Amino acid sequence: MTNQVRLAIMTGAGGVGKTTLSVNLGYEVASQGLKVAIFDLDPQGSINVACRLNKTPAPKATVAWLYSGFFDGTYALNPVWEDHVNGLEIYQGGKALFKVMPNLAQPGGNKLLRDALSEYPLPHDLIIFDCPATLDQIPKSALIAATHILVPLVPDAKAIDGTRVLLDWYASSVQELNLSSPPHFLGFVINNVEDGAEHQRFARELPPRYEERGYRVFPKIKHYISFTNAWSEGVPLRVHRTTHPALNPLKTIADAIVEEIKRVKDGKA
Amino acid sequence: MAKRNRMDVDTFFSEVDQTQEVYDLRERIQALEAELDGKVVQEQYLIAQVEQLRSQSHEDDPRQNQQLQNQLEALRQHLKESQGVAQYPIGDIFPNPDQPRKTFTEEVESMALSLKQEGQLDPIILFEDGMIFDGECRWRAAQTLGWDKIDAIFTSHLNDPYVLRRKAYVTSLHRHGLNALDKAETLLAIVCDQIPDISPETIPRTINRVLTRLKRKKQSFSDRLHLQSPEEQKQYLETLDDLNPLETQILLIFLGLQENIASLNRNIFPTLKLAPELKQAVREKALGCAQAVILNQLSAASLGISEKQSTKLRLKGIQAVLDNNLSTVQTRKWVSQQKKKDNEELKLKSSQEISQLLVRFQKLNLIEMEPTHEELEVLQTVLQERLEQVRQLLR
Question: Cα–Cα distance between B76 and B250 in angstroms, integer?
Answer without folding.
Answer: 38
